[in-house]
């Protein structure tokens, strides 16, 4: 039997396909997995895949990408799949030609009818007997994928070619997969992977596959485990805290790593209570979840975790620039030099430069450059010139982030021939002639990065680009993070059903005024129970409350100071 697993990136198909292979082997079946352990078993196919993922190949069109992907699948078929089936093995694949139809047809927008003859040629008439579509909410899949990259040490990896298009691609590809399954219900089984333990999904899957292997047909196309029910009633701002932590505690029993990571940057006592509960099992994720937090509990946790996970503690400092952060970075430097140096963005203090000088002496020039983002001083330009001489072009480009001077623009012009994407990222928040021209040039090739580079930009050209982009991908909403502008609110309202989690996260940092509350309540009602939406909504509410609380603490001190000054003047 030929069994294929399909699904968007982050759906869990690789994990589930390997679990199925292992279980079938234990049951006595001879099994060959064409992508065992997540790696294509054909060396030639692996080389082709490198080409299709290379984000530097910006000019590659969807047709060229399609034929390269077909070549990869054809090679896997000839070298791995067909021989296994010839031996009588159960052969499992993680992606097959259906993926190319979903990506190029649904995702890239080419006509499926024009693609089918080429797929037939590549298949040699050999199509799977059974297709398992691992279906998942794209927002949840994206969170899992980010966590996976973090845990495997690939958090700083550059985007793949698919990644450049933006998160909307996964939505369109998922819709295409579901349509393929709808048209061929006898061949396809849909396994939902949203809110159930992996062991439950594995058991349901094994039972369904063994039934097919034994000739016992199952009449139901969907394998849908009973969902975890949210609390009764309609979600709103007033009860979002209880709902989020109810959902998070349920997730912790199934995916504890993801639960810990979803606390990233969330202030407040309830979040800290969970961090304390997770700290012994998941110290690295807890340390990283403290990103940007500057309260006493956050500092206590950092002190406790420094000895065991120094790199994660350094990464979790974010943009905190208090005296405590300077002291901790100095202590962490010996064990986590790169993380410490890269975390100095926008810092031009003597303490920051002391660390940079130490880093350059120790040979960490690339990390020093990355941590120079937003720093426009004579010393910084000397370091950038050194980076240019060492051909550290991507790091030099990153060091220019947010700087709009003539010197910065001239260096970007030089860097364009070496790394256009790094230069584009460095224009975030800027509306210089180079930034405008680069966005127009790359809008169709790297839409995600173009839209994110608009963050904070308030110009007619930027709004037109956001409004076009919002029809295709959620990053158009990322670019209005924290903006309290009439066009930002209109964009949020129009995109709330298509990109609910991102619309909500774009309100972080805004006060809980009537307009904020109304849109939050609308999205929470429409998307009741969806964890990414609940998480982002609670983050908005918690941060707004933290800001209000800080303001209340400052106000009496200011009033007291003013009273004392009045007395002195009297």
How does this structure look, described?
The chain has a domain at 2-223: P-loop containing nucleotide triphosphate hydrolases (Rossmann fold, 3-Layer(aba) Sandwich). It is globular, with a radius of gyration of 26 Å. It is mainly α and 570 residues long. Residues 565-570 have low confidence and may be disordered. It has helices spanning 13-26, 43-53, 62-86, 97-107, 112-123, 138-151, 161-165, 168-183, 198-213, 240-254, 256-261, 269-278, 283-288, 296-305, 310-315, 323-332, 337-342, 350-361, 365-370, 378-389, 393-399, 406-415, 420-426, 433-442, 447-452, 460-469, 475-478, 486-495, 500-505, 514-526, 531-569; strands at residues 2-6, 31-33, 90-94, 130-135, 188-192, 222-223. Strand 5, helix 9 and strand 6 (222-223) form a beta-alpha-beta unit.
List the helices and strands and how they pair.
Layout: E1 2-6, H1 13-26, E2 31-33, H2 43-53, H3 62-86, E3 90-94, H4 97-107, H5 112-123, E4 130-135, H6 138-151, H7 161-165, H8 168-183, E5 188-192, H9 198-213, E6 222-223, H10 240-254, H11 256-261, H12 269-278, H13 283-288, H14 296-305, H15 310-315, H16 323-332, H17 337-342, H18 350-361, H19 365-370, H20 378-389, H21 393-399, H22 406-415, H23 420-426, H24 433-442, H25 447-452, H26 460-469, H27 475-478, H28 486-495, H29 500-505, H30 514-526, H31 531-569
Parallel strand pairs: 1-3, 1-4, 2-3, 4-5, 5-6
Helix pairs in contact: 1-9, 2-3, 3-4, 3-5, 4-5, 4-8, 10-31, 20-21, 21-23
**What portion of residues is helical?**
55-70%
> Number of helical runs?
31
CATH superfamily of the domain at 2-223: P-loop containing nucleotide triphosphate hydrolases
Structure summary, number of beta strands: 6
The CATH architecture classification of the domain at 2-223 is 3-Layer(aba) Sandwich
Strand order of the largest sheet: 2-3-1-4-5-6
Percent of residues in beta strands: under 5%
Q: Could you give the distance between the termini?
A: 93 Å
CATH topology of the domain at 2-223: Rossmann fold
Structural class: mainly alpha
Which consecutive residue ranges, at least 5 long each, have pLDDT under 50?
Answer: 565-570
Mean of pLDDT: 92
Main sheet record: 6 strands, parallel
Shape: globular
InterPro entries: P-loop_NTPase, Thymidylate_kin-like_dom, Thymidylate_kinase
GO cellular component, one term: cytosol
Function: Phosphorylation of dTMP to form dTDP in both de novo and salvage pathways of dTTP synthesis.
Catalytic activity: dTMP + ATP = dTDP + ADP
């Amino acid at each position: 039997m030929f069994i294929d697993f399909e699904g968007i990136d982050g759906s869990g198909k690789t994990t589930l396909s390997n679990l199925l292979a292992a279980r079938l082997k234990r049951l006595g079946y001879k099994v060959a997995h064409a992508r065992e352990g997540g790696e294509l078993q054909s060396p030639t196919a692996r080389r082709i895949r490198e080409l299709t993922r290379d984000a530097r190949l910006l000019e590659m069109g969807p047709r060229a990408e399609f034929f390269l992907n077909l070549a990869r699948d054809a090679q896997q078929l000839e070298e791995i799949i067909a021989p296994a089936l010839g031996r009588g093995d159960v052969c499992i694949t993680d992606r097959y030609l259906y993926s190319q139809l979903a990506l190029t047809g649904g995702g890239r927008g080419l006509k499926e009818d024009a693609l089918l003859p080429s797929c037939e040629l590549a298949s040699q008439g050999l199509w799977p007997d059974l297709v398992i579509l691992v279906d998942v909410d794209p927002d949840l899949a994206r969170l899992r994928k980010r966590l996976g990259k973090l845990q495997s040490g690939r958090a700083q990896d550059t985007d793949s070619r698919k990644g450049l298009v933006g998160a909307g691609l996964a939505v369109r590809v998922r819709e295409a997969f579901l349509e393929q399954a709808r048209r061929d219900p006898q061949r396809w089984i849909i396994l939902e992977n949203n809110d159930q333990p992996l062991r439950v999904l594995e058991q349901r899957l094994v039972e369904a596959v063994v039934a097919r292997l034994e000739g016992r047909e199952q009449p139901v196309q969907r394998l849908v485990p009973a969902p975890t029910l949210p609390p009764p009633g309609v979600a709103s701002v007033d009860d979002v805290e209880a709902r989020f932590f109810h959902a998070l505690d349920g997730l912790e029993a199934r995916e504890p790593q993801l639960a810990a990571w979803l606390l990233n940057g969330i202030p407040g006592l309830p979040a800290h209570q969970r961090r304390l509960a997770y700290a012994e099992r998941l110290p690295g994720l807890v340390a990283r979840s403290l990103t940007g937090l500057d309260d006493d509990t956050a500092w206590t946790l950092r002190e406790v975790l420094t000895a065991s996970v120094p790199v994660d503690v350094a990464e979790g400092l974010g943009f905190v620039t208090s005296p405590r952060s300077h002291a901790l970075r100095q202590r962490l430097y010996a064990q986590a030099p790169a993380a410490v140096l890269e975390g100095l963005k926008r810092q031009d203090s003597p303490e920051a430069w002391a660390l940079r000088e130490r880093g350059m002496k120790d040979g960490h020039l690339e990390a020093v450059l990355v941590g120079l983002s937003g720093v426009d001083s004579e010393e910084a330009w000397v370091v950038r010139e050194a980076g240019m001489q060492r051909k550290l072009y991507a790091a030099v480009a990153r060091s220019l982030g947010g700087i709009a001077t003539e010197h910065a623009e001239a260096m970007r012009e030089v860097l364009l021939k070496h790394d256009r994407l790094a230069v584009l990222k460095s224009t975030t928040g800027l509306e210089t002639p180079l930034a405008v021209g680069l966005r127009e040039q790359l809008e169709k090739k790297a839409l995600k990065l173009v839209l994110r580079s608009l963050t904070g930009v308030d110009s007619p050209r930027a709004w037109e680009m956001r409004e076009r982009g919002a029809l295709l991908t959620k990053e158009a909403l990322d670019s209005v993070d924290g903006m309290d502008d009439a066009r930002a609110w209109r964009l949020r309202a129009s995109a709330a059903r298509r990109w609910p989690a991102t619309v909500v996260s774009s309100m972080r940092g805004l006060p809980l005024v009537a307009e904020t509350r109304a849109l939050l309540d609308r999205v929470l009602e429409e998307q009741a129970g969806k964890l990414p939406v609940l998480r982002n909504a609670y983050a908005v509410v918690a941060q707004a409350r933290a800001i209000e609380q800080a303001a209340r603490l400052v106000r009496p001190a200011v009033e007291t100071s003013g009273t004392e000054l009045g007395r002195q003047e009297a």
